[in-house]
Every structure is written in C-alpha cells, then in structure tokens.
Amino acid sequence: MMVESATETIRTTSSNQNGVSSLSSQSEGGGREGGSNGDTNGEISPVDLLHLQQQQVCVCVFVCLCVCVCQQQLGSKQLAFQQQLIQMQQLQQQHILNLQRQGLVGLQPGQGAVPIQSLQQAMCPTDLQQLWKDVASVQSAEEAIKHEGLDLSTNSSNSTSYSASKVSPQIPHHPLPNGQNSVHTPKRDSSTHEEHTASHPLYGHGECKWPGCEALCEDMGQFIKHLNSEHALDDRSTAQCRVQMQVVQQLEIQLAKESERLQAMMTHLHMRPSEPKPFNQPLNLASSGSLLKRDSEGFPEGLPHPPTSAATPITPLRQGPSVISSSSLHGVGPIRRRNSDKFCTPIASELAQNCEFYKNADVRPPFTYASLIRHAILESPDRQLTLNEIYNWFTRMFAYFRRNTATWKNAVRHNLSLHKCFVRVENVKGAVWTVDEVEYQKRRPPKMTGSPTLVKNMISGLGFGSLNASYQAALAESSLSLLNSPTLVNNSTGASLNMLHVGHDDVSSTVEQVNSNGSCSPGLSPQQYGHHVHVKEEPAEMEEDSRPVSLIASVTQNLSMPGDERDMDEELPTEELE
DNA sequence: CCTTCACTAAACATGG
DNA sequence: CCCATGTTTAGTGAAG
Prior knowledge:
Elements: H1 2-33, H2 46-72, H3 78-101, H4 116-122, H5 125-137, H6 141-146, H7 195-199, E1 203-204, E2 207-208, H8 220-230, H9 235-268, H10 280-287, H11 339-342, H12 347-360, H13 369-379, H14 387-397, H15 405-418, E3 422-427, E4 430-435, H16 437-443, H17 452-460, H18 462-484, H19 492-501, H20 508-515, E5 532-533, H21 549-559
Antiparallel strand pairs: 1-2, 3-4, 3-5
Helix pairs in contact: 1-2, 1-4, 1-5, 1-12, 1-14, 1-18, 2-3, 2-5, 2-18, 4-9, 5-9, 17-18, 18-19, 18-20
This protein binds a DNA duplex through helix 11 and helix 15.
C-alpha cells in the first residue's frame, strides 16, 4: 500500500517536475533572446541526459520525502532520509546508464528504482520530448535495434489491464507523422489556420517537429531537405518510431487511468458525468481515451477556446495534455477565470503538466493575464523582463497567443500598468518589469491563507486534494529550483525545508524562496532593482495576506496521513470548496 | 441586485 | 510619420 502510494506519487511528481524543467529552460532562452523571436532549444547533448537524470533524482527526493513523512512523522530522521536519498540516486544513475546502453528501451521492469514504464506513464509531453532527446543522443542505435529489448511493443503490456489501445508494432516504411500526432491518428491538416503547420505534420512554427529534433527550418523546402537528410529511413529513425509507438500507447494507458480516476472521483462526489456544468465537457476531455483519436472532430467545446476567434481551434500536435489538471477543467472558457487566482491554482503546476499542450494547441490558457505575466517574469533568470520579452514568452508558451496579437498585447500592457504588483524599473538596458510579490499576494483573497473554515474544509475532505496538489506542485517546482540552483543541488534537507514552507499557494512563491538561496522573504522588493521605480496605486486592496503557520501545520498533518486514495495529483474542482 | 474582477477596446502620450 | 511602449478610461460579462 505504501509502495503504491509512492508509485503514484512518482507519477505525479515526475510529470510536474519534468514539465517545470522544460518551462524553466524555455524561460532562460527567452530571457536571453531579448526581443528576438528565437527558440534556441533543440540541442541534443549530454546535458539533456544529465537533465533527465536530475529530474529523476528529484523524483527520488520527493519519494524519499514522502516515505520519511509517512513513516517517521515529518521533519525527523533526516539521516535516514539522506541515506535513502543516496540509495535512490544510485539506482537512478544505474537506470540512466541502462537507458544509454540499451537505447532507452530494454529495461526490465525491476531495473532501477523507477521502472521506465512508470516514468513513461507519468510523462507529460515535455517528458517525452526529453525522452526523445535522449534517444537521439544514443549513438549506438544500431546496436540498440538489434537488441531484443528494443521491441517496445512487447514490454509494456503488463503494466495495466488496459488493452484496448494496442498499437500495432509494425514499423511503417515511410516517415511517420509526428509522434504527437500519433501513429494511429489520421492527420488533420486541412486547417486554414496556419498553412505551414498544415502542410506537414512534422513541421510547425518554423521548426522540425520530429521528436527530439526541433531543428529550425525556414521554409517547407528546407524542412523537407532536413527531413530527408536527418530523418531518413535508417535504424535510428526506425527506433524512434518504435519508441513513439510506445509513447502513444503509454499515453493512452495513462489517459484511461486518469479517466477512470476522474470517474471514481465524480462518483465519490455524487456527480453525474452528464451534468451540463461544469464538468461534462471536461469529462469528454478527460474520460475519453479516444480524445486523441477523434480529434478530427474538432476540439471539444469544453476546452478553453478563443472567444474572439472565428477560426476553429486547431491542435497542431495531437499530444493533448497527458493530464489536464483540473485547474483547467473548472474554468473552461475564457481566460477570465478568477479561480486560478482565488483558489491559488498552481499555475506553475498546470503549466508544467500541460506545457507542451499549450505550446501547440490553440487553446486559451486558463489563467489570468496577471498570473501569466507574473509567471513569465518570475521564471526569468533575473526575474525581470522587458515588455517585448513578456510578449515573446506568451507566444512561445502558448499557441493561442500567436495570433490576435493586438488584443492580448494590449491586455498585457493594460495589466502591467494597472496592477500595482507589476513594477516598472528603469534599468541600464531599458525598462523592465518586475513583480512585487507582496503586492501580488495582497491581491489574493485570503481564502487559502487564513480562513479557518477553509482550512477545516481542506483537512476534512475535498480540500485536501487541492492543498495536496498545491503542495505537490510546490514540491515539484522547488525541486526544479534546486536543479537550477547549483548551490542547492546537494542540499536535500534544505530542499525539504523549503518545500515545507509552501503548500498554500501559487508555487511561484516557492521559486522565490529557493532562488533567493533559502531566504524566506515573501518577495522581491522592487527597490532591489533600484533605479527608477514607478509607484502605482491600486484602488482596492484586499485584506492583508496573513500567512498562517496553522496551514503549514495542516500540511504536515495531512502528509503524515496514509497516502491511500488521497494522492490525487490534480486539484479537485474548487467549486466543491464552496 | 450590487460589487468586484478580469477582459477587451480604445484613446492618448511619449520617445526612438 | 510610424511604431513600441505605457497610461488611462470605459464597457461588458462572469462570479461572488
């Protein structure tokens, strides 16, 4: 039972962690580009491998933490924790070596601390991209393909009882559609939205969409050239196709699992799936293992959709969110959803889980402009961005923001000016925007931070899921911060301490806590940036955010409980808290 | 029903 | 003049 709980936790954390990592790396690229619109990722190097390794170590951190928490009460027996951590790390390193040696696929389920199947099941599209990079980096693909373990179609069927979504293991003798488009999914390229996207499923937004490639191609001709030269029918491409099959299969399995979980949750909550609002459409999204397949019917209406657009939303990549967290479920429709703020939906978590989805699907993100801007800024290396960099972040992270630019850019500027929490700083290189975290927190209703009734609700029932999700997201993000912060990589106890500081809120505050090298200051004072600061007056101030210790206590209380079914990796619909 | 919030649109100012 | 940036106001709809 404990093992099951831990495994489930691994899934959750792995998903979050990897997504967040991707997010961060993207941001760093954006921070450097300074106005130019260039995606600079796509390098395949040992760094990628190291990246994966770090991610998995992070999973270990979380697992170990949970084990410690559950068995020994939180905060005690740090020595045992560290020993377990080291043990897990060693196992993970073995696992990585196996990946390298066997072309990523020959693992026996018992090898390594986390079987690759578990990882794959937990993988969000970002993970898969990472996976592909690793595959591409394996030079001995020829050996790998001779290796019998490469036959991916046979080594995963034991993981669950879901067998409906079998994918034919046959290797097509022609270039396959993009993995995200899935092997068995008919291509829907008739969209008039983006001709270059429609013209080839492996080409979009000026880059090659071959898994793990992302090579920049100026036009279709160049792309075709690239495709024929780099992704010709050879052993490596064949192996990648096989892996992609596996990926699709795993995604379907995971989708089925999540769907079942959702059904169980709804059953538990006495909700009928057919209820018109607010769940029926998300149910379609989540419950249909067939969403991926029947995507050609068009995007489900329940998905957030661009309200001002007459164009049919398209999903250039069909990977969809492997796990659409409920934060995107409870607020379908326009971006105007206070929930994400009011109930402290961890935007970082949501983005982490569905990062690839938002990048490629023309779906409006379920966050307010303010929260998105804040996230973009906090994600940047210096936690400051020029307006143009914010624009770039939007367009890079969300396919939706690649059009209607006038509208949303105006909205961005409007938000920057309107909200007191965004502080314009005259820098050496011009004006940059920063986030005054204190002001941002002030904006937030005190529901999650102090209301005794809310805390009570959270402890007693549904709220646990929400809190737990926030906590897990915070864990994921703080782990990421550890990865990004060399000085803290080895400081696992520091990590766990930092993790315990959060659990209430948008996880970005965690980023700050960790990034500021352990400092628990709630936010950066704009004066730190110091030259020229425009002070804005925001008309209505909400109640002061009194961050209670009691909430943290409740977190620890909850963590000490057995995992059982409460290990939901998504938040329950916040409406249920009302 | 009222208020608050978020989004959209637009006008306007400023500086390069 | 154009464009990017920044500020401000007004209208609208959703939600509390």
